[in-house]
Amino acid sequence: MDNKIDELVKQIKELEEELVEALKEKEKEFFYKIENEKVKFEENIINEGKAKLISSIKYLSSFSFLVILTIPFVWGMMIPAFISDVFVTIYQTICFPIYKIPKVKRKEYIIIDRYNLFYLDKVERINCLYCEYFNGVIGYTREIAARTEQFWCPIKHSKQLKDKHSRYDNFFDFGDYKKYRKELKKRRSNFKDIEN
Asked: CB-hemisphere CA count at 13 Å for 129?
């Protein structure tokens, strides 16, 4: 059974690599390339996109009044996101070296680039900035929690999860107490796939 699971995990990783290649092909379709970690669009595409910009007022007026009233609640969520960002960064800075867990690279999760797109009005840019940061913090926090869980409690749940984190496949099967006792020390420090 373990061989079948290992084979399926291998196939999933191969498909993920294939997906990355397909996404790189998509760059060509939208006339941009990445140079020195910066996106470069073709000039004629930038001009065409800017010509189709709508004003921020027109953009906002496309929403109902009730949607506009929710904006303070949406932006209020930046406070817990920022606090989470600060605290999980402090946590991993202090604890991960002690646990010998590789640190999560914040810049791989919090990627701020969409707010700069030439075809977005000012409000859309601000919205993109919010979503880039907030979802980045959630992903960053989840990866820190996943690595922590692998160290402290690497046991799968009895029920199927809707969405597994990156470390979950390294966990012990629910109820496999023999393997748990035998391999816990080794498994909790096995981050070779990240270190490579």
From this structure: 11
